[in-house]
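Propose amino acids for all 381 sites.
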């Protein structure tokens, strides 16, 4: 697809630094995508995101279909105009959200019938209907509708979900081909490699998908859903060996700092997660020395910044003592500043990883960073 090009600047082992060109701009990879589930990154203005160097954001088809409605967003000119974000956007298909509605959904080969978490109304998602929703939303990158399962699922369950996801992928492709051209910019459909924690299934899925078409990029799904971290890292190594080197890989729903660094070392280019804003709203903060909880009484008189090495607005202007005061007083500014810091932290972390790959120092940089982060994690959380 001429509108979506991925250029590798340098590779060091499996780690890569590249540039993913989209109709709304170039994303330098590896990169973290802030999550704007409901067409907003909670607590942050798009200008905030632009100021901290965020390049691409994610929104969710499930949530936006239910509220305010994907057709309404289409009538506003699509997500970019609706939320006033000029950069690239990716929309998740809602597969994870639908399958997390335990007791509220029924899976069949046709699709998934589910009850809305908002009002209990009944809806049906099929590969075809999800493609129509994502076309209405108008994101640059759209994800296939897939079957998501818990991380520790046994092989037979993982095989069933993975094979169904591949069958649904074919239906997604056919529906995209039938739909009228997207309003505004073209869209790129990413397939999703499933298979649970079973290496043979992941290899099989990656090879089957790879042979189905010349995809503009690939999603790696079904991780960070309850499996142990060593299992996630092992599966990333398996998938890394199977996917084309000249296409971006998107690890879905992963956003803790250590997992981003480990993912970069295993060939991942794009990440997303709600963790930075969700944790910020609960007083948890990422720092280079591990995680800290601003609610702890010891920070009441602490005049230091959250992280002395961070250049975000929260760290360059305010003390830990002040931020703790805002948080315990229930002031909205506290939630906003902590969310801003956490998103900035991950965006900057990936910028540093890019620089390390380009300099050929990613192995040494990652070893030092991970050792420092883990060594002090227990003393700051």
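Proposal:
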């Amino acid at each position: 697809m001429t509108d979506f090009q991925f250029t590798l600047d340098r590779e060091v082992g499996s780690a890569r630094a590249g540039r993913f060109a989209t109709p709304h701009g170039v994303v330098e990879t590896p990169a973290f995508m802030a999550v704007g589930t409901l067409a907003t990154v909670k607590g942050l203005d798009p200008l905030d995101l632009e100021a901290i160097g965020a390049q691409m954001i994610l929104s969710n088809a499930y949530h936006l279909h239910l509220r305010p409605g994907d057709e309404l967003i289409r009538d506003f000119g699509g997500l970019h105009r609706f939320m006033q974000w000029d950069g690239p956007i990716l929309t998740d298909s809602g597969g994870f959200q639908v399958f997390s509605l335990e007791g509220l959904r029924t899976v069949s080969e046709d699709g998934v019938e589910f009850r809305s978490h908002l009002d209990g109304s009944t809806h049906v998602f099929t590969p075809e209907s999800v493609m129509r929703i994502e076309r209405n939303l108008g994101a640059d990158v759209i994800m296939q509708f897939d079957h998501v399962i818990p991380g520790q699922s046994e092989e037979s369950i993982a095989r069933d979900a993975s094979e169904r996801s591949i069958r649904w992928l074919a239906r997604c492709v056919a529906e995209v081909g039938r739909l009228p051209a997207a309003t505004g910019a073209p869209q790129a459909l990413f397939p999703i490699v499933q298979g649970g924690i079973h290496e043979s299934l992941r290899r099989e899925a990656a090879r089957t998908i790879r042979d189905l078409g010349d995809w503009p990029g690939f999603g790696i799904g079904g991780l960070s859903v309850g499996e142990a971290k060593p299992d996630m890292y092992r599966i990333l190594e398996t998938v890394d060996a199977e996917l084309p080197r000249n296409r971006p890989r998107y690890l879905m729903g992963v956003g803790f700092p250590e997992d981003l660094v480990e993912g970069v070392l295993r060939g991942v280019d794009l990440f997303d997660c709600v963790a930075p804003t969700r944790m910020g709203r609960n007083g948890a903060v990422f720092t280079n020395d591990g995680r800290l909880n601003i609610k702890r009484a010891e920070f009441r008189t602490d005049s230091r910044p959250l992280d002395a090495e961070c250049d975000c607005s929260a760290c360059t202007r305010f003390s830990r003592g002040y931020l703790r005061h805002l948080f315990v007083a229930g002031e909205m500014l506290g939630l906003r500043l902590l969310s801003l810091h956490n998103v900035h932290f991950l965006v900057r972390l990936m910028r540093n990883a890019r620089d390390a790959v380009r300099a050929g120092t990613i192995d040494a940089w990652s070893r030092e960073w991970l050792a420092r982060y883990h060594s002090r994690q227990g003393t700051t959380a």
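The mean pLDDT is 96. The chain has two domains: 5-273, 280-380.
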